[in-house]
Every structure is written in structure tokens, then in C-alpha cells.
Amino acid sequence: MAKGGDTPLTLGTKSISQLLVQYSVPAIIASVAVSLYNIIDSIFIGQGVGPMAIAGLAITFPLMNLVVAFCTLIAVGGATISSIFIGQKNESRATDCVNNVMVLCLIHSVLFGGVTLLFLDPILLFFGATPETIDYAREFMRIILYGTPVSYVFIGLNNLMRATGYPKKAMVSALLSVAVNLVLAPTFIFVFDWGISGAAWATVCGQTASFIWVLCHFMSKKSFIHFRRDNRWFNPSIIRRIYSIGLSPFLMSVCACIVVVFINRALLDYGGGNSNLAVGAYGIINRTTMFFVMIVFGVTQGMQPILGFNYGAHKWDRVKRTLYIGIWIGVGITFVGFAVCESFPDAISRLFTTDETLTTIAREGFRVYFIFYPVVGAQIVIQNFFQSIGKPKISIFLSLTRQLLFLIPFLIVLPRYYGVKGVWASMCGSDLIAFIFALVTVIVMVKRLNVRFKGLKPIEQ
């Protein structure tokens, strides 16, 4: 049972506002902590190693997205399915999800980590590394890839911990990773003088601590859903469903990887003599925007078990209310991001670097990139809504609209006429159009689902 006898079954009875506080607040706290760590880690690297190290770190972003992609393929799919099964009162199948996620995380980490290590230099060069930045990028990514088995299991099981009724414990695991990172990163970088590799080792150590935490949770028989030897550890039907639902965030991460390649290439091609610093400016902007995006992801992570459970239990009115509240919260968060970044671009940049040229390039990027940023929160919530109710094709479509259908064509055309400013304009323009597509899609689908659920009786728990 969950702490205090509060099991996941209350997802169908408690008020939506109470549930969002119960599930989203811990997820938001964890997301903010992770985002702050990423920002502080970049600050340590920028201040302790130099501006070229920031550029080298930016080159690793697409590869890091791929690392995340092969993990979220399993983690999000498993979390969504387990919530739906619990809503259907099928605890045995939810346990199958946990067992299968553990196995798949280990398989994916070994395959992906091993292949990437073999071809690391060619991959980094393809992503835009230059002779000035490749050493930093290689040094950082090699250590991160060594730790993929630990990070995959930690991320996969942490998603399941939240989905099966333990949002606070999931928050603790994320905070534990961040706390270890924040202690070790400055020690490794400034005291031991390990440079950018010190930041990477600190990350792996932090994830190892959280890996132990989540593993102990799922090995305990006191947990509502936990490892069971008698349940299946490799169930083809479960695996197919995990992949089908996890395909949306997987493709989103892959698309993000492709997009960052185009962004880096455009900045290198049109950045002139400051091309490496333009990539570094994007690294600063990317870290900053991800801070607010991760807060919205915290909201959607809290929404996911509520949506999945009530959708599985045929409680459609509760599903709609969760969606509407989530959209307004998401917009509020990204509006704050818009206001802060438009008002204080130089102050943000100077946290990462003392280089005035890099600060100037980043200032222009902040001012253009964040013009339509308030609508990003709604687009993220809507996309994750379809993922959470087991409709991956719609979620995939919405993820592709921004990153492939709009952003890449903009990146091909606009920089030719407006240079680096065209790169920033491409990103903000695609945000607006993707929001419009998401809004129209959710309005149409809610109307269709209203008809579908009209004659269905809720499944009582």
C-alpha cells in the first residue's frame, strides 16, 4: 500500500485539484531540481572550463536526446499502461509492466550505449563538432554512456513509481540524484581539476544513488506494485503495448536530435567568425528554455496516472477536467518563462559566461526565440494528454508537426535571409503553428470521445 493507506485507487475518487497537487507538485519539484542542476552544471563548466566547453556541451545535446529517447520509449509506455491496468483493477498485468520495463531498460542500455561508444567521434562530428569543441564533447559523452545501464533503470522505474501511486518517493529519487550531483560536480571540476569529465562523473554518481533507491522500492513487498518472480518478465503483448505508447516520446526525442543537428549546422554556417560561440549561445538558451519545459513536464507527469486511471475506468468527465486544468497551468508556466527571458537575457547569460561576445549573441537569441513561448505549455500538455490515454498516433503527429513539418523547413529557408536571427525566428515560428495544430486536434478529439463515452458506465473500484 501507499503511505497512509492511500492507494492508486483514489485516482478515481479524489477531486482532480487534490490529485494534481498530490501527483504534480512532487513531479514539478523533481523536474525543477533536475533543471536547476543542468543549469548549475553548465555554469560550473562555463566558469570552470571556458566558453568552448559550453559549445562542446551544446554539441552533446542531440546525442543526449537520443540517450533519453531509447529510455523514454520504455519508461513512458510502461508508466501509461500500468496506470490503465490499475484503473481496470488488473494489478497482475500492472506487475507484468514493472518486470518487463526492468528487462527492456537493461537491454536498451547495453545495445545503445555500446554501439554509440564504438562510433562516438563520427556521431559528434555529424552533430556539428569542430576541432575546437570535439575533445570536450567526447570527454563528457564517453562517461555518460558508461553509465547508461544505471540511468536507464533509474529513469524507467522512477516513472513507474509515480504511475503506481508513489509521487513523493519518485520526487525523492530525483532530488537524491540532484543532491549528489551538486556536491560532487564542483568538487570534481574545481578541486580535483577534472574539467568537463568531472561534471559527467558527478552525473553518473547521482544517478547511481537514485538507481539504488528505486530498485529497493520495487523489491519491497510493501509497495503496491512490486517485482514478482511468478509474473512474466518478457511478455510480448505487454512489450508491444509499451513500444506503441512509448513511440510518441521516443520520436519526439529523435526529432529533437535531428532538429538540434540542423540548428547547430545553421549556426555554424551563418555565425561567421563567431560560429562556435553561436552554438554556445544556443546551449545557454536551450538550458534556460528546458528549465520551464521541465516544469511543464512535471505537470504532465503528475497528470499521466490521473488521466490513464480514469480513462481506463471510463470516467471521462474526470479526464476532461484534468486536461483543462493542465492546459491552463502549462500556459501559466511558459508565460513566466517568456516574461523572465525577455526581460533579463543578459543576466541569464552572464550566469554561464563572462565572454561579452557570447552574451551579445545569446541576448538576440533570447529576444527572438521567446516571442511565442507562452503557447508552448499548452502544446506540451495536449501532446502528453493523448499519450496518457493510450492514443500514441495522435501524440506522435503533434510531436512531428513542430519538429519536422515546420521547424526544419524554417531552418533551411530563414537563415539564408536573416542569418543567425533566422535560426531563432525558425524556432519561435514553429512553436506558434504547432500550438494551433494541437488546439484544433484536441477540440476535434474531445468531441469524438464525448460520443464514445456517453453510453459507457464507469468501472467502480
Automatic annotation (TrEMBL):
It is a multi-pass membrane protein. One of its GO terms (cellular component) is plasma membrane. It is found in: Cell membrane. Keywords: Antibiotic resistance, Cell membrane, Membrane, Transmembrane, Transmembrane helix, Transport. It comes from the Bacteria. One of its GO terms (biological process) is response to antibiotic. GO terms for molecular function: antiporter activity; xenobiotic transmembrane transporter activity. Signal peptide: none annotated. The keyword rRNA-binding does not apply. The chain crosses the membrane at residues 20-40, 52-85, 97-120, 140-160, 172-192, 198-220, 241-264, 284-303, 323-345, 365-382, 394-418, 424-446. InterPro entries: MATE_fam, MATE_MepA-like, MATE_MepA_subfamily, MdtK-like. The keyword Cell membrane applies. PANTHER family: MULTIDRUG EXPORT PROTEIN MEPA, SPORULATION PROTEIN YKVU. Belongs to the multi antimicrobial extrusion (MATE) (TC 2.A.66.1) family. MepA subfamily. This is Multidrug export protein MepA.
